[in-house]
Design goal:
The protein is of the alpha+beta class and 467 residues long. Helices cover 50% and strands 19% of the residues.
Length: 467
């Protein structure tokens, strides 16, 4: 398991280390450049002084160093070479045999690092000798033009021991500062991280105390902003768990309530059959009645499970364009044998271009459910009218059956579980009262609207509008 604290510390310290390292490197390079400029200025002044002592007189071009302190060039701390043309007029001892990368003399001073360890800075310049006109006049010699004289090359190098020592100490101090910064930053950030993540620890403890049935919610008061998405998702999950638990409880209560009547009837049939000896025909009749009760109970259990599944199901995301009229035609054709058996006249009117977006499976079950409800409740020898037409917002399916025994005041309750609008059939066991509750949930999943109107003794009408 990867710790958030560890990631936070490593990331923060690593980022800070990179920033400090870059800042230190930039500072180091700036200091090094500043020292280099100072060394170059000193060498430029020294070079100007040396070139001023190269004179052309009656004895030719010479380097007059009598007034100069040449000790620095003799003890190995500096290096000087003066040449007229190709003839060397002065050269001090080399730097203890070091291989130096010396610059080529040009008219402007050239500065290079002749060696990096030890730090040796070198410069060179090609200058015309200073003409000693007084000496030439005393000797009776003509004064030559500067361009006619051989140029003098002066090469000067110095050991930058002070700068080298300063940079060494700077590097040591920078390393110490970086290490101290890392340690102090680690302690500081660890404290901040622990304090910042304390809210997550408290949140974890609060989540651990939530009941398993989802009946409680997390308090969002005084929570860190970063934890609010977690709190929101946990509360949403708790709400879904609570709803699922409520559905489970409702399902158990519904099953227990609705199974009581068929089980009592089944118990009564068996009890009567066993009360006295009977012939085979009577036993067969009792078994057929018992089998009818079992079939009705199975149907009710299947409908309960279907409704439970639909209530737990979210909005269907697999909707495609479906020909609603074709589905209605298929379901009406499947219903024709039952209609003929009950001497029911069924008329079907399907318009053109009745296409809508829906989940095909759910749409098939919804239309079959509504048509089956009409076939079950129509009076013997009555009529069922089915119309599938275009609607301003989509497709409208209208199913009308005659012989309604539902009072208009009872219509709003028809979508409730176990609601039986026909009081005369309330305890027959032939209808569980779940069909329209299932139809309403199926319509919700399709994003459709469903409405019912009823005239007692007249027509029972269902309108389904699909977008």
């Amino acid at each position: 398991m990867t710790s958030i604290r560890s990631k936070f510390l490593v990331g923060a310290i690593g980022s800070a280390l990179v920033v400090l390292s870059v800042a230190t490197m930039v500072t180091y390079l700036a200091v090094k450049k500043s020292l280099e400029v100072q060394v170059d200025d000193a060498l430029r002044q020294e070079l100007a002084l040396l070139t001023s002592h190269v004179e052309h007189g009656s004895d030719g071009t010479a380097f007059d160093n009598e007034d100069l302190d040449m000790g620095a060039y003799e003890d190995g701390s500096g290096f000087l070479r003066v040449a007229v043309g190709t003839e060397e007029v002065y050269s001090s001892p080399d730097f203890q045999g070091l291989a130096l990368q010396l610059p080529t003399p040009e008219k402007e001073p050239q500065f290079v690092w002749a060696a990096s360890s030890p730090r040796i800075r070198a410069t060179a310049q090609l200058v015309p000798p200073r003409i000693d006109q007084e000496d030439l006049a005393e000797a009776g010699l003509p004064v030559p033009l500067a361009s006619d004289l051989e140029p003098v090359s002066v090469l000067l190098a110095r050991h930058d021991s002070a700068g080298e020592e300063f940079l060494r100490q700077f590097r040591i101090i920078a390393m110490v500062v970086l290490l101290a910064s890392m340690v102090s930053m680690g302690v500081f950030l660890r404290g901040i991280g622990n304090r910042a993540l304390r809210g997550l620890d408290e949140l974890a403890n609060d989540i651990a105390t939530l009941p398993a049935d989802g009946s409680s919610r997390l308090d969002d008061h005084a929570r860190p902003d970063e934890a609010m998405p977690i709190v929101t998702r946990i509360n949403e999950l708790s709400q879904r768990v609570e709803q699922a638990v409520e559905r489970e409880r409702a399902l158990g209560a519904d099953v227990a309530h609705e199974l009581r009547t068929p089980l009592a009837g089944l118990h009564s049939l068996i009890d009567v059959a066993l009360h006295r000896p009977r012939d085979v025909a009577e036993y067969q009749s009792t078994l057929r009645d018992a089998l009818d009760v079992v079939h009705q109970t199975e149907t009710m259990a299947e409908q309960l499970l279907r409704l439970h599944h639909l209530e737990a199901q979210g909005l269907n995301g697999s909707q495609v364009e479906v020909d609603v009229g074709s589905v209605v035609g298929e379901q009406c054709h499947a219903l024709e044998p039952l209609a003929a058996k009950r001497n029911v006249t069924m008329t079907v009117d399907i318009a053109n271009r009745t296409r809508a977006h829906a989940d095909p499976n759910t749409l098939h079950m919804l239309i079959a459910n509504l048509l089956g409800n009409a076939a079950s409740h129509v009076d013997e020898g009555g009529t069922i009218r089915v119309e599938c037409t275009r609607h301003e917002s989509g497709v409208q399916l209208t199913i009308i059956n005659s012989g309604s025994r539902v009072q208009p005041a009872d219509v709003p309750r028809l979508f409730d579980r176990f609601s039986r609008g026909d009081a005369g059939r309330g305890n027959t066991g032939h209808h569980s009262g779940l069909g329209l509750a299932i139809a309403k949930r199926e319509a919700e999943l399709l994003g459709a609207t469903i409405q019912i109107t009823s005239e007692h003794g007249g027509d029972f009408r269902v309108d389904l509008i699909l977008a």
